[in-house]
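Request: Could I get any protein with tokenized structure?
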Amino acid sequence: MDIKQRKILILGGWGLVGMAIIRKLIKHNPKEIIILSLRESEARDACKEIQKEAPNVKLTPEWGNIFVRTIFKDLPRSDIMDIPKNRKMLIEDVLEGLDKEKLDSSFLNHLIEKYQPNIVIDSVNSATGLAYQDIYSGYYNLKQEMTKAIEKNVLTDELTTEMEKMLTTLYIPQIIRHIQILHASMVNNKTGLYIKIGTTGTGGMGLNIPYTHSEEKPSRVLLSKTSLAGAHSMLLFLMGRTPDGPIIKEIKPAAAIGWKRIGYGTIKKQGKPIKLYDCTVEKAEKLDELWNFEGESGWTNTGENLKSVFIDSGENGIFSLPEFETITTAGQMEFVTPEEIAANTIMEIMGDSTGHDIINGLYNSVMNPTYRAGYMRHDALEEMNYLQDKHDVESIAFEILGPPRLSKILFEASLIKKVCKSMTCIVSESAEELTSKLEIEISKNANLRSQMISIGLPILMSDGKTLLRGPQVKIPVQKARKTIDITSKKMDSWADAGWIDLRQKNVEMWQSRINEILSVNESLPENETSSRYHHGRKYWMVDEPLQIGKLASWIFINEDKGLRIKS
């Protein structure tokens, strides 16, 4: 993709890699670069610094947390977590289904919708941002409050708080929701390309990495970061295989990244100066059999902050001279410069192949469908058809594969097949006549009826009020509820998702589907025998008995937009 006169949104633009990428971008005369960072000062500083180098490029600062709602974007996580109303909203945003309200409320969606960028470059260390919420510390806090509650035989506010906080530290739901919002927003706003600068989580090292965040080796917190980074890449892999979305790429450095600057000054951790304390020999603690985490306060605050020579590695913090020397030694993390990452990023954006796009690497290394499997599929279908005839049964759906909608479609198609064998027969009858025949069939065919309700698919009769059901119903999902209000809108949604629907409007939908298939089939050249068409005229066999699996796949591809685009 050409960069010239394109609008580009760069997430994490103030960071080490982000700034290096921007410096490469400005040479290609983009229309506008929107630079997002967590803090306002960072975004404005980045724009100010780059503007000196590119006075003719439009630079726009944006700031905030892309993983939360717009109303939370500038709040420290503690301010969200410590307020019950905010905490509840955060839990629902991550664990409830994605709807329009959640999408519209997302700060990430707000950004993409506001600027409608042609290109999104994501250099946020997402794995660090989410995994370092530390589910393990949350677990120990929760365990402590649960022990108290058991001892007191009471559910304390503290326990409720810790349980809610624990829910908000679940990594996978958060990265899934992030990807859902990102994809929906980019599709809605016609983004052309998305490129992620990812992480391995360990600077390219293995499980034997000696740098840990705890006393265990390897650190579970560190491995959580790597796990999340891998999950992130696989979700991007799937995003890249989704029709109508942007081109997806990811460059994943497998080394420490350095550096931003070298200097002398106050050493800060998480934005705060490290205070200097002292403890004299006279005030030393005597160790006994019990360790006291709070200590005996024998130390004194010197009133000064730690100052030293440092090297700034951007998002990964600052290192002392020997710390940097250690991690970059051959045989340790070693390192890669942000300018090298930026150069590869620009090349990938412009369509060149650097060999470092891991999404492309995944595409080329996963096992795709094979000729042998396609050849043997015919034998498998023949054998199953033979066994159906032998045992006088019809194998329809078991609701093990899921989703309930597939089982619903297969059973409805099978029911239609019993009263109207072929496609031409289905469209030749009136919807009213066909509806009546279907209801009569379901009333007298106990075997078919039993299969449906036994796997959790209720049957909605033609009056729209009578329901045949068993002890289990797949749709609506219970979600720990005893009851749920019924509205016509909800009923239509449930029927579409997993009810056998005998109402006339659903029968009309089936006739509309068949008419569409027949129309497309008729439009094909009668004597066409080349490889031009995936499915030729003979594929549907319109006057033969319905092939319900073919119908289901057509619905999933055309109605549900579930087409696989890469093989």
